[in-house]
């Protein structure tokens, strides 16, 4: 049975209590929480709630792996500015924080083993770590967000955002559970291998980009990955930016995609 940190859960529920009062959120919030996954691991996350959110809104939600990037790289400030300047409509961002600790006995972080399915196929322990995280993300993290935040329950209003290894996780997620979300923003995926998957059972759109200055060995990898996704029915829009494997570029294109996907509406 899952355990939720009572104090943190209480803080979130209090911060969301405006829903029951039919009010408008005057300032944006980023509320952190902890969950204990079925494997007993303590996992952390956060929810971004936009200013202007009304109590009867059911807003679109972006599910973000590597949520510490959101917290540490100024994503909240950027989204606040885009909403304040009427560049985008309000949107919720649900962040699952990555585990950067090293797996005991390996020179690999939990983040790698939990996100990269192709890395796990040849190692029983890594397979277990990947499957445990996948189960947590799909059966605990997403339902928790839907419980405590007033997010839309439409598949078309659920998106995934990931970069580097978390982008790999998003691509795997799209093939394992295509019914969950309609759109995936996967920036600079580095280890995706979908050779074991067949055709997608649902329509899925992908926004995939990478840097012209990524490692030289990646130049063939990215086009081949896109070709493989399209062969399996994925609708892929891709582009190359003039940079490397870089968080600032990923942040920039996240902002541009927000403006494309959630244009301001009066």
Could you explain the architecture of this structure?
This protein is of the alpha/beta class and 266 residues long. It has one domain (6-261): Rossmann fold (3-Layer(aba) Sandwich), CATH 3.40.50. Helix content is 37%, strand content 19%. It contains nine helices and eight strands. The chain has helices at residues 6-15, 67-72, 75-84, 110-115, 117-120, 124-148, 165-176, 221-231, 247-261; strands at 29-36, 42-49, 61-64, 92-96, 158-163, 183-187, 205-211, 235-241. An eight-stranded mixed β-sheet has the order 1-2-4-3-5-6-7-8, with helices on both faces. Strand 5, helix 7 and strand 6 form a beta-alpha-beta unit. The chain is globular. It starts with 5 loop residues before the first helix and ends in a 5-residue tail after the last helix. The relative contact order is 0.13. Residues 1-21 have low confidence and may be disordered.
Order of helices and strands: HEEEHHEHHHEHEEHEH
| Distance linking N and C termini | 44 Å
CATH homologous superfamily annotation:
Alpha/Beta hydrolase fold, catalytic domain
The residue fraction in helices comes out at 25-40%
- CATH domain class name: Alpha Beta
Structural class: alpha/beta
Rough shape? globular
Total tally of structural domains:
1
Summarize the structure.
The chain has 266 residues and is of the alpha/beta class. The protein has helices at 6-15, 67-72, 75-84, 110-115, 117-120, 124-148, 165-176, 221-231, 247-261; strands at residues 29-36, 42-49, 61-64, 92-96, 158-163, 183-187, 205-211, 235-241.
């Amino acid at each position: 049975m899952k355990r939720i940190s009572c104090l943190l859960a209480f803080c979130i529920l209090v911060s969301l209590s405006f829903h029951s009062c039919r009010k408008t959120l005057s300032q944006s919030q980023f509320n952190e929480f902890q969950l204990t996954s079925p494997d007993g691991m303590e996992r952390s996350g956060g929810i971004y709630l936009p200013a202007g959110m009304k109590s009867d809104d059911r807003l679109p939600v972006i599910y973000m792996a590597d949520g510490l990037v959101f917290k540490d790289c100024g994503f909240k400030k950027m989204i606040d500015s885009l909403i304040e300047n009427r560049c985008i409509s309000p949107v919720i961002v649900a962040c699952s924080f990555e585990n950067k600790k090293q797996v005991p006995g390996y020179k690999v972080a939990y983040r790698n083993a939990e996100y990269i399915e192709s890395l796990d196929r040849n190692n029983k322990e890594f397979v277990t770590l990947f499957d445990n995280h996948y189960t947590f993300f799909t059966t605990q993290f997403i339902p928790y967000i839907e419980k405590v935040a007033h997010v839309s329950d439409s598949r078309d209003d659920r998106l995934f955002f990931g970069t580097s290894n978390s982008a790999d996780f998003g691509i795997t997620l799209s093939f394992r559970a295509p019914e969950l979300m309609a759109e995936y923003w996967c920036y600079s995926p580095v280890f995706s291998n979908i050779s074991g998957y067949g055709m997608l059972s649902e329509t899925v759109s992908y926004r995939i980009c990478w840097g012209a200055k990524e490692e030289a060995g990646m130049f063939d990898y990215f086009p081949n990955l896109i070709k493989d996704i399209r062969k399996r029915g994925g609708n892929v829009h891709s582009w190359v930016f003039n940079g490397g494997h870089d968080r600032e570029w990923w942040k920039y294109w996240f902002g541009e995609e927000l403006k494309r996907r959630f244009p301001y509406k009066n």
